[in-house]
Each structure stands twice: as structure tokens, then as C-alpha cells.
Amino acid sequence: MRTKTNASRRPSRRTNSTASKIVSAGLATATCVGLVGVIGIRTAQDSAAADSSSATQSQASAVAIPTSTDGYTQADLDAYAAQLAAEAQRLTDYRAQLVEAAQTLQASAGGSAGVTVSDPAAVPANQQAPSVKKPKPAVSKPAAQAAPKPQSNTKSS
């Protein structure tokens, strides 16, 4: 009985050309730069948020008397309320941008019906928002066409 050895294997035909190495290095570099950019942006956002919350806390009174059973002071609760109000304003602005984008897309699509947007404050918290029904686009069926003639595989000389 004969067994195979490693010497009888064929070498791999993987190519490592200079062009593929350059492309790989370029993609790796772009990925690293993108990751560093994302980390930098997130760090800047976090530091801006920390600065705004520390300014709110410094404006609070110097006397910290707990007002809740969890140990939060009135200043803590006021600072949290201010953060919630700022976040609510940011979300309202973002919603307005989305509505504007939806209306722009609707107009560019040539739709006759405008985008209807209900005020989220008008919807009770225990009731879910109704699902938006999109009108189905009218699809016209192509006219029936005659079947193509079969081609013969024989050569005529």
C-alpha cells in the first residue's frame, strides 16, 4: 500500500503580485484612518457633552441636600431634566430633517400625494402609531409578444 507524502503535493498557485500588495496596503490604511476618525469624532462629542453637563452642575446651588430616596439632589434632578430637554430638542430637529428628506424624495419620485406626518406628541403613549400604508405603484404588464423562432444548430454551406 502506498501513502502520500507532503513532497508529492503541488505548490499553491496563489499570486502575490505587487499590485495586489499595494491594494491590500491601501485598504488597510483607509480602514485605520477611518477608525481613527470615528474615534476622534466620538471623543469630541463626549467631551462636548461632558462640558455642558459640568457647566450645568456648577450652576447648581452649593448646598446638596438629597431630595429623593435614591440620594439624588434637586440639582442632580434639574441637571438631568435639562439634559432630557436638550435631547428632546435634538430629536425634534432630527425628525424635522427626516420629514424634509421624505418630502424631497416624494417630490423627486413624482408622487402626487404628499407625505403626511402626524405629530408624535398627539399619539398617546399606550397606543402604537398606526402603520403607514404605502400605495402600490401601478405596474403595467408588457404586451404579449410572439415567441422567437428557434435557431438551428446546423451549418449550411
Q: How would you describe this structure to a colleague?
A:
Residues 109-157 are annotated as: Disordered. Keywords: Membrane, Transmembrane, Transmembrane helix. Residues 127-157 have a biased composition (Low complexity). The protein is an all-alpha fold. Among the domains are: 21-59; 63-107. Helix content is 49%, strand content 0%. The protein is built from two helices and no strands. The protein is flat and about 100 Å long. The two termini are 58 Å apart. The model has no long low-confidence stretch (mean pLDDT 74).
Tell me, rounded to a whole number, the average pLDDT: 74
C-alpha termini separation:
58 Å
Order of helices and strands: HH
Q: Which class best fits the helix and strand makeup?
A: mainly alpha
* Percentage of β-strand residues: under 5%
SS element count, helices: 2
**Cα gyration radius (Å):** 33 Å
Shape: flat
Question: Stretches where pLDDT falls below 50 for ≥5 residues?
Answer: none
Helix content estimate: 40-55%
SS elements, strand count: 0
Instruction: Tell me about the largest β-sheet.
Output: none
Region (Disordered): 109-157
Transmembrane segments: 21-41
Keywords: Membrane, Transmembrane, Transmembrane helix
Biased composition (Low complexity): 127-157
Protein topology:
Layout: H1 18-59, H2 74-108
Please name the defining characteristics of this protein:
single chain; 157 residues; mainly alpha; 2 helices; 49% helix; transmembrane helix; transmembrane; membrane
